[in-house]
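To illustrate the input format used throughout this study, we show a single complete record. The first block contains the structure-token representation of the backbone; no residue identities are included at this stage. The design step must infer an amino acid for every position from geometry alone.
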């Protein structure tokens, strides 16, 4: 496996130093930035495989950094949030983070989460050479093997989780799944998050797929139960 590069954007030097030490021990290459602005600059020059992003940062905060990175990239972003800030988790996910970890955290958990997120990207990249398997649903064409989605022929930029959720639902048209089921099936045992993650990801998907995300035609809500995919 080639060396993976992690960019840590965290202003508390004592935290970022210990993270750096542990990641290097695991064979990762590590780059650091201590505020949001230089984090964004580092992001475009060092081309990391994953970004570890603190929420509370000087100059530009973590949410803004996350939003900016998402304008040009779908790489995994893992946010570091303070334990008492429940709202931060959801906001981070809404802005396109893939995962979050709450401070204080154990190094083993952090390393495991980073590895899990990188593994999933490797898996996705390996699938881009797979034979295509395009299925059409109205204006949407989903390549189930290659992780590509087009709407009216135009490719959509989905994150890995967004694609996996879409694929899971589209392959099981009209079948309703609860949030708990989706968390279990799509996010899997490696995920420690809560069911709001599903709602946030559905919302993000709708914004990308639907003409009018408040009146969805593909990903439908079954009130009080969960979500299902419908061919329009
Ligand atoms: Ca901080």
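Output of the design step:
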């Amino acid at each position: 496996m080639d060396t993976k590069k992690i960019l840590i954007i965290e202003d508390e030097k004592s935290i970022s130093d210990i993270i750096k030490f542990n990641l290097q021990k695991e064979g990762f290459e590590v780059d650091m930035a201590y505020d949001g602005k230089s984090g964004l600059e580092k992001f475009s020059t060092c081309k990391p495989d994953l970004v570890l992003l603190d929420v509370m940062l000087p100059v530009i905060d973590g949410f803004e950094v996350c939003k900016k990175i998402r304008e040009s990239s779908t790489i995994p972003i893992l946010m570091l949030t303070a334990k008492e800030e429940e709202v931060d988790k959801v906001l981070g996910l809404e802005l396109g983070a893939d995962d979050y970890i709450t401070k204080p955290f154990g190094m083993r958990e952090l390393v495991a989460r980073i590895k899990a997120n990188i593994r999933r990207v490797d898996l996705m990249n390996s699938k881009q050479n797979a034979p295509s398997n395009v299925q059409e649903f109205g204006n949407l064409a989903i390549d189930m093997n290659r992780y590509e989605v087009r709407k009216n022929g135009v490719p959509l930029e989905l994150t890995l989780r967004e694609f996996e959720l879409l694929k899971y639902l589209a392959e099981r048209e009209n079948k309703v799944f609860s949030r708990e089921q989706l968390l279990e099936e799509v996010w899997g045992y490696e995920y420690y998050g809560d069911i709001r993650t599903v709602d946030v990801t559905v919302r993000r998907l709708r914004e990308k797929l639907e003409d009018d995300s408040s009146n969805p035609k593909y990903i439908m809500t079954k009130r009080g139960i969960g979500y299902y995919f419908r061919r329009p």
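Structural context for interpreting the output: The two ends are 42 Å apart (CA to CA). The chain has two domains: 5-126, 134-229.
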